[in-house]
Amino acid sequence: MISNNMYNGINILGKSLDASLMRHNVISENIANEDTPGYKRKDVKFEGLLQEALLSNNKLSDIDTNALTPQVVVDKANLSYRLDGNNVNIDTEMTELTKNQIKFNVLVDQVSNNFSRIKTVLSR
Protein backbone atom coordinates (compact mmCIF):
# COMPACT_ATOMS: atom_id res chain seq x y z
CA MET A 1 0.00 0.00 0.00
CA ILE A 2 1.23 3.47 -0.86
CA SER A 3 1.34 5.73 2.17
CA ASN A 4 -0.01 9.23 2.51
CA ASN A 5 3.55 10.37 3.23
CA MET A 6 4.59 9.41 -0.28
CA TYR A 7 1.77 11.38 -1.88
CA ASN A 8 2.46 14.39 0.30
CA GLY A 9 6.16 14.07 -0.47
CA ILE A 10 5.39 14.21 -4.19
CA ASN A 11 3.10 17.20 -3.60
CA ILE A 12 5.88 18.97 -1.71
CA LEU A 13 8.31 18.23 -4.54
CA GLY A 14 5.71 19.63 -6.95
CA LYS A 15 5.43 22.82 -4.91
CA SER A 16 9.23 23.06 -4.89
CA LEU A 17 9.26 22.70 -8.68
CA ASP A 18 6.64 25.46 -8.92
CA ALA A 19 8.83 27.70 -6.77
CA SER A 20 11.88 26.92 -8.89
CA LEU A 21 10.01 27.72 -12.11
CA MET A 22 8.72 30.95 -10.59
CA ARG A 23 12.25 31.84 -9.46
CA HIS A 24 13.55 31.23 -13.00
CA ASN A 25 10.97 33.67 -14.37
CA VAL A 26 11.75 36.26 -11.69
CA ILE A 27 15.50 36.03 -12.31
CA SER A 28 14.88 36.39 -16.06
CA GLU A 29 12.83 39.51 -15.33
CA ASN A 30 15.64 40.88 -13.15
CA ILE A 31 18.15 40.31 -15.96
CA ALA A 32 15.84 41.93 -18.51
CA ASN A 33 15.52 45.01 -16.26
CA GLU A 34 19.22 45.37 -15.48
CA ASP A 35 19.29 48.79 -17.18
CA THR A 36 15.87 50.02 -16.02
CA PRO A 37 16.30 53.04 -13.72
CA GLY A 38 14.79 52.52 -10.26
CA TYR A 39 14.09 48.83 -10.81
CA LYS A 40 14.45 46.72 -7.67
CA ARG A 41 15.39 43.08 -8.05
CA LYS A 42 12.85 40.48 -7.06
CA ASP A 43 13.21 37.07 -5.50
CA VAL A 44 10.98 34.13 -4.59
CA LYS A 45 10.28 33.28 -0.97
CA PHE A 46 9.68 29.55 -0.55
CA GLU A 47 12.48 27.63 1.15
CA GLY A 48 11.84 29.37 4.48
CA LEU A 49 8.15 28.42 4.33
CA LEU A 50 9.06 24.82 3.57
CA GLN A 51 11.63 24.65 6.35
CA GLU A 52 9.14 26.10 8.83
CA ALA A 53 6.51 23.53 7.79
CA LEU A 54 8.99 20.67 8.08
CA LEU A 55 10.15 21.77 11.53
CA SER A 56 6.65 22.31 12.91
CA ASN A 57 5.18 18.97 11.81
CA ASN A 58 6.04 15.51 13.08
CA LYS A 59 5.06 13.71 9.88
CA LEU A 60 5.31 14.59 6.22
CA SER A 61 1.62 13.78 5.86
CA ASP A 62 0.75 16.51 8.41
CA ILE A 63 2.10 19.30 6.20
CA ASP A 64 -0.57 21.42 4.54
CA THR A 65 0.80 21.68 1.01
CA ASN A 66 -1.80 24.33 0.15
CA ALA A 67 -0.02 26.65 2.59
CA LEU A 68 3.26 26.17 0.73
CA THR A 69 2.76 28.88 -1.84
CA PRO A 70 5.86 30.56 -3.29
CA GLN A 71 5.74 34.36 -3.14
CA VAL A 72 7.51 36.98 -5.21
CA VAL A 73 9.15 39.60 -3.00
CA VAL A 74 11.00 42.81 -3.83
CA ASP A 75 14.57 42.74 -2.54
CA LYS A 76 14.96 46.09 -0.79
CA ALA A 77 17.78 44.81 1.41
CA ASN A 78 20.15 44.59 -1.54
CA LEU A 79 21.35 48.19 -1.60
CA SER A 80 22.04 49.88 -4.90
CA TYR A 81 25.39 51.48 -5.53
CA ARG A 82 24.14 52.81 -8.83
CA LEU A 83 22.99 56.37 -9.31
CA ASP A 84 19.81 55.28 -11.09
CA GLY A 85 18.59 53.31 -8.02
CA ASN A 86 18.59 49.94 -9.80
CA ASN A 87 19.94 47.17 -7.56
CA VAL A 88 20.31 44.37 -10.12
CA ASN A 89 23.80 42.87 -10.31
CA ILE A 90 24.12 40.73 -13.44
CA ASP A 91 26.78 38.48 -11.87
CA THR A 92 24.53 37.76 -8.89
CA GLU A 93 21.56 37.04 -11.16
CA MET A 94 23.54 34.65 -13.37
CA THR A 95 24.82 32.83 -10.28
CA GLU A 96 21.28 32.56 -8.89
CA LEU A 97 20.02 31.33 -12.26
CA THR A 98 22.66 28.58 -12.32
CA LYS A 99 21.90 27.54 -8.71
CA ASN A 100 18.19 27.47 -9.49
CA GLN A 101 18.73 25.33 -12.60
CA ILE A 102 20.74 22.79 -10.60
CA LYS A 103 18.05 22.73 -7.89
CA PHE A 104 15.34 22.28 -10.53
CA ASN A 105 17.19 19.34 -12.11
CA VAL A 106 17.60 17.65 -8.71
CA LEU A 107 13.89 18.09 -7.99
CA VAL A 108 12.92 16.62 -11.37
CA ASP A 109 15.16 13.61 -10.66
CA GLN A 110 13.52 13.15 -7.25
CA VAL A 111 10.01 13.26 -8.73
CA SER A 112 11.06 10.80 -11.44
CA ASN A 113 12.53 8.45 -8.82
CA ASN A 114 9.36 8.61 -6.74
CA PHE A 115 7.19 7.72 -9.72
CA SER A 116 9.57 4.89 -10.66
CA ARG A 117 9.18 3.46 -7.16
CA ILE A 118 5.40 3.71 -7.37
CA LYS A 119 5.46 2.01 -10.77
CA THR A 120 7.63 -0.79 -9.37
CA VAL A 121 5.28 -1.33 -6.43
CA LEU A 122 2.19 -1.36 -8.64
CA SER A 123 3.70 -3.80 -11.13
CA ARG A 124 4.35 -6.47 -8.48
TrEMBL record:
<comment type="similarity">
    <text>Belongs to the flagella basal body rod proteins family.</text>
</comment>
<dbReference type="GO" id="GO:0030694">
    <property type="term" value="C:bacterial-type flagellum basal body, rod"/>
</dbReference>
<keyword id="KW-0282">Flagellum</keyword>
<dbReference type="GO" id="GO:0071978">
    <property type="term" value="P:bacterial-type flagellum-dependent swarming motility"/>
</dbReference>
<dbReference type="InterPro" id="IPR001444">
    <property type="entry name" value="Flag_bb_rod_N"/>
</dbReference>
<comment type="function">
    <text>Structural component of flagellum, the bacterial motility apparatus. Part of the rod structure of flagellar basal body.</text>
</comment>
<keyword id="KW-0969">Cilium</keyword>
<keyword id="KW-0966">Cell projection</keyword>
<comment type="subunit">
    <text>The basal body constitutes a major portion of the flagellar organelle and consists of a number of rings mounted on a central rod.</text>
</comment>
<protein>
    <recommendedName>
        <fullName>Flagellar basal body rod protein FlgB</fullName>
    </recommendedName>
</protein>
<dbReference type="Pfam" id="PF00460">
    <property type="entry name" value="Flg_bb_rod"/>
</dbReference>
<feature type="domain" description="Flagellar basal body rod protein N-terminal">
    <location>
        <begin position="23"/>
        <end position="40"/>
    </location>
</feature>
<keyword id="KW-0975">Bacterial flagellum</keyword>
<dbReference type="InterPro" id="IPR006300">
    <property type="entry name" value="FlgB"/>
</dbReference>
